[in-house]
Amino acid sequence: MKASGLLLIALVLAPVPALAQSTSVFLTAPDDPRAVTVKGIGDGRADDTAAIQQAIDAVAADRQRGGGGVVFLPSGRYRISRTVFLRSGVRMFGVGPTRPVLILADNTPGFAKGIGAMLSFTGEDQYRAGKPPVPPPTSVPFSDTTFDATSTTFYSALANVDFEIGDGNAGAVAVRFRVAQHGFLRHVDFRLGSGFAGIYQAGNEADNLRFFGGRYGIVTEKTSPAWQFTLIDSEFSGQRDAAIREHEVDLTLVNVTMRDTPVGIEIDRGYSDSLWGKNVRFENVSRAGVVISSEQSAFTQIGFENAVGVNTPVFAQFRESGRTISGKGAGWRLSDFSHGLKVSRIGEMGKIATDITMTPLAAPPPPIAPALPLLPPVSEWANARTLGAKGDDQTDDTAALQRAVNAHRVVYLPTGRYRITDTLKLRPDSVLISLHPNQTQLYLPDNTPRFAGVGGAKAMVESAKGGDAIVYGLGLYAGGVNPRASNIIWRAGERSMINDVRIHGPVVYTNGKAHGGGIDPEARWDGQQASISVTDGGGGTFAAIWTPNGLASTGFAVTDTKTPGHVYELSAEHHFKNEIVLRNVENWEFLAPQTEQEVRDGVYAVSTEFHNSRNILFANYHGYRVTRTAKPMDTAVRLVNSGDIRFRNVHVNAESAYAHCDTEGCGTYVRASKYPFENAIKDMTSGQEVREREFAKLDVPAGSARPATVTGVPVTPGVTKLADGFYSIAGGAVDTQGKLYFIDRFHQRIHGWSTSEGLTTVSQATLDPVNLTVDRSGRLLVLSGAGRDGTVYSIDPKAPDDVRTIAATAPRAGSAVALPVNVWANGEFADRIDQKTYEYPRLSSFFTSKMGEPKRQAYVSPDGSVAIPAFRVWNQGPDDHQGWRWSDTLDSYGLVTAHAGERVYLTNASENLTYSGQVAASGALGDLRIVAPRGGESVARGSTGNLYVANGQVWVYDANGREVRRIDIPERPLQVLIGGPDQRTLFILTHHALYSVGI
Fold first, then answer.
1. Using one digit for the tens of pLDDT, what is the confidence trace for 667-715?
2. In CATH, which of 2.40.160.40, 2.30.40.10, 2.120.10.30, 3.40.30.10 is domain 720-998?
3. Helix, strand, or coil here: 380?
4. How far apart are CA 559 and CA 536, in angstroms?
5. Is 168 buried (19+), middle (13-18) or exposed (0-12) by CB count in 10 A?
6. Between the CA of residue 391 and those of 205, 387, 440, 679, what are the distances in Å?
7. pLDDT digit string (tens) for 616-629?
8. For residue 435, which of 946, 937, 32, 18 has the smallest C-alpha distance?
9. From 228's CA, which of 43, 46, 476, 650 has a CA 20 to 30 Å away?
10. Which CATH superfamily, name and number, covers 378-700?
């Protein structure tokens, strides 16, 4: 008999996994005087909702510690009858010999239809709107005073608590889990019964979860901060439709099993995701391990490493084409899989490709050891307070903490701030634990002598070399003026772990000054050592870490090691120089790393640098710059003499969503910046770039000697540089004579360019010009960022001091309509699921509906020939020049014009597609059609019908959407316009230069 047949018999005879009882990981409550314990009945019959909510609210309302803290839920069975709200910054831990269980009894009112959450993570009034812009619709009963969790919902967590859903609760979900950094679910069993899902709207990180039954285990859209969700060491069993149903959540799976269900992971129809799975196991999955939608989209990035199928005939099914990838027999191993935009090598553009390496298995492989080790039992935790530390924000606790570490393997720090003045040195087997990285901190006072002056890095916490040390749940703050300080220097071995650790630092406000945490005015940005430094042979596992301290040179630095390292859901942000650095490193993987640069403390920063490094995996990587950024930066990643690096699922972006209330109502609005990193990757050794900012796969080969001549970026013959030296140009328009006008906004200059005159400066008036269009009489209609809702004015380029402010009026019949050439519109962040059908509207429908909205007012040029519709303007910050303004027209790289009834061409950047639409006098677009398979910064249409699309390079498509050629430009093209005396010149604006090419 064949091996596959024996395997199938073994599977048939194998026992079905039982609903094994959960094991409490906190058998007793840790000693923390500042924690609040729930005073419920816990007999499974009494309604304990109020008791649980009262404990949570008591911790959330403790303003003495800034809100937030720890709640203990003792062993018991707690029936709830309405949604429990887990407030921002509150962590609830089940404690006792058995895991406490939250129970939804049979036929509980409010949970039979729609979606109702048993427990919901909530946010705060982040923007002082006064009322929730978008209260969560999953509250039972619905509350219009509850703020949904957002991108600033930090530290909220739930651990060691199970859920059970009884019959007659078809709309019930156990947890609405919208959170940002340091939000987690851990050690939770979901017995879902009749329910809809265990988790709805996921965020940040979860591990050691088990899902039994239910229609789905997890149903989720994009996370509230718009970056990855990582699930580790978890299992799904017996879901009726699919284990996971999702889109755009950037799902990262590590050591996850899905069994006895029709589908493992289903990506919703019409949507994409960046999905990465390591050590994923599909058992008895009848229809498909993965259902992939939007297979031709650059945003669809699907990758697996070491996926195993057991009695799973189909690994992947492509929804639109119907194509399938079958398994090899009854058991198979997928060592490598990638589908999406593949970049063959640095310097090239990408193409959609599917790469797969699969082999049959003779027998089911044994389960893989957990990626994250459990903490020692609470009975082994030596309490630092009992051992002499005070944690009172005043006493020097250095000596007491060091004595505790020296004498005990496991040291627990209850809630408090522990002042230290010297390095805390760990043993090789040390375990240092706290339960809240905001409420429990180690910190250095400013000007601590041992951390002062010029010298090598000195750690606040330092591991021994080798060993299996653990640091868990702790916050560290190195003060403002301690130039030698590094929060953690880590030399521990591969079995060590840093988990749920927060590096604290100052917050930067709009005046550029550092605030928060008692920052000394002498504090210097980029004036301290790396926050977390793994060096000298160090390695291990690093999970759910947030390091946003702009005083440090780097958030996460790895140097001089070949010891394997595994990084899961790292958030490194707000540094002035770089967020992540690898130097002389081999054998590391970064799964779901995320970087962010703020407008004041990151505009010069590079996301990640590799120096002399090999055998590195970067998967589900986000290189993000905030929407407020107004400075160009060349690349997210720099490579220096590095190779054998595998990039999988790369996302380099600069768009954000904001919840907001104003006179027009409340809602969630997405804004896109003009200043994401220009390129994803730059090889500093060869000078070549990766212009694609969304791609699924790039293998950088092993490094070779530096070339004798740096080849740099290829350029198409005929491309001519007309002018350079600009800060950042955009907003161009061409008049009837073919003359180009454009804006360098930073310098508030309007320039002109023509063959006869060359480069001219039309205006330097300090009026914050953003975008231009030209009326029939030759005057410039200028969209400005000045004023709360922006301003529009008109100037004569021959007499620019003649400034005429244009008031918004009703749209005028006969005027050409000027619309944004690029728009970001996909309706994200707003619970898009239909509460009756549980289906999602198509992604493209949000673009269609947004562009189809008529505008009540418009800014009409003095001669009446052209009008800019008055798009809604969103404001953040003060009303004066220090505030920020966004609208679709302000965000765009330029404007395109057409008369009512004519077709106009523009791109939807959120789909990476180019559309045409029929213009109405109101500015609405109808009959939207996809006309090119790429979109991006802008598009122009030539007289022959050819389309010129700026997306990394300039792509040329004929009238039928077929690719004709590509025009390679020395820098990333941002706006393309057709002009010149004969309308046969393609002007190409990059940030710093103006180019042209004949067409």
1. 666 677 899 999 999 999 999 999 999 999 999 999 755 565 656 788 9
2. 2.120.10.30
3. helix
4. 7
5. middle
6. 29, 12, 8, 46
7. 999 999 999 988 88
8. 32
9. 476
10. Single-stranded right-handed beta-helix, Pectin lyase-like (2.160.20.10)
